[in-house]
Amino acid sequence: MDGLNASEQREFQGRMEKKQMKEFMTMYSNLVQRCFDDCVNDFTTKSLHAKEEGCVMKCVDKYLKGSERLGQRFQEQNAAMMQSGQLPGR
Amino acid sequence: MAEKPPGQDPAHPAPASLPKPEGNPALRMMGLPRFKFKLPSRNWLIFWAITGSFTSTLLYDRHHKKRAQRKWCNFVSHLAEEPVPPAVMPRKITIFLAAPPGDSLRPARDYFHEYIKPILVAGGMDWEVIEGRKEGDVRAGLAEKIRKLRKRSGEKPAAESAEEPEEKENSDDLRYEVRKRSGVTEWDGVQGDLVLGRHTWKEYIRGLHEGWLGPLVPPRPAEALETETQPLPTSTSDTRPVDSPPKTPSTSEAASDSPPQTEPPTPDPPPPKPAKATPKPPYITPEDYPTCPTAPSLPTSLNPSLPLHLPHVLGFLNTPTRIYRFLTRRHLADSTGRSVAALVLASHSRPYIQSAEFASAIDPDFVPSDTNNAPEGAVTQTGEAWEQEAILKEEEREWSKTAWAPNKEDEKTKERPWLERMVIDSRIGQKMSQFELESGAAEEAVKVDKEKRMQDPSLVDRIRRWTGFEKGEKKGWDMGLEGWDDE
Questions:
Q1: Is B86's CB within 8 Å of A79's CB?
Q2: Considering the entire predicted model, what is its pTM?
Q3: What are the Tim10-like domain coordinates in residue numbering (chain A) (predicted)?
């Protein structure tokens, strides 16, 4: 990354941003898909029922918190890996 | 009546002339054999009686064991449903497991998996296990854990022992650092220790004392060298009459950080220690407790503990005892479940007490096991004893004989926390407490269990749903396996 000149840096930055955006969108669409499938099951009206709304809230909450926790654990593993120079648990 | 008319003959046949058609004539006509119910032979009777009674006792016991476990699981399961904020680690319980005297680690582990783990899981607990394969492992593990805790809370080791190299950071420390940086906190509340069996309990107490009263770094090996150069008999009979191994540091210190035995310690051939994992030698011995200052970071109350009975008896002649226990595990499951539920709920704990009755409970059958350990020591002869000393005392009678054997010649300095009397310093003793269920919890548990079982679909309901008798639902056999219906 250090051996890049200014324009290459910019290009790199742009690609990284795009990649991150893409990842975020993937996660988001996964989340929407999952929670929609799990919670919304009545199509007789166009509005959400109270029950469905509660379900969606809980679903999103669970998903986000779960991935946050997962991220933390990954971070720890990553740190352990960086230090020992190999995969942890070997 | 002597002469009958011939027309009446078929209705009343003469008994002697014609054999009576046996059983149901219709079945006879169909050619079915005659079923005659009679008892099987004597040998079959004996066989079925023994097999049947054993099997039914076993099934009865397992059924009720399951019920008892489910009861206590249901009693704590509400805890598992409470969400924990993502930046907080779940409550972590420390489990202390050690191989029972004369046996391997397996029975203790099995006991944990069978009776304790289900309830911890039902209560949504996290746990770590400190395991001991040999006498002293648990003590060393706990002391190390406490010392780490002390270092983390900012204690600095005394300057004199700078020679001890900084210990390599392991993944545990690293994880701690990362968590601290990212703001992940530990569970805020009591954590709790679970101790399995009297032998582990003895080591636990010792480790607790060593951790909180002992130094942060191992005592300097100069002292160890001194004792090592002296022949062993004199070292046991010198200034310290009541002695557990005189300053054990020598053995594994030499084994761990110096090339094997550079200095010739004794006239006899220095046995190159086989690479067996020996527990880290204790930093202090029970005799040092009164003279040791407490750690500045010693909290006002230690983690409450839960000493649990670990039934374990060895020997061929004890087979009847083992069979009896095998067939009455429901009681064990119930009592263990009850204790573990108290730990999981952690709603109530009481401090241990000090009283004369424990002293009388301990002393009469205190066995002066080893010549090294004189029982009448400076220890506690005040007439009062701590409750901790008497806990699970009855287990010692079931220990295998090998547990009481004195140290072998080549390992005189091995520590024997199982054999020696427990020494409790009042500074530590009064900070300990024990988990307890509040009164009425048992009835409560029965009630909760009943309610939860009412909510669960019964077997009949499940069968009805599966076969499609339930209105408005897809038939179970039409949906594939449960949980697959989305795909």
A1: no
A2: 0.72
A3: 15-76
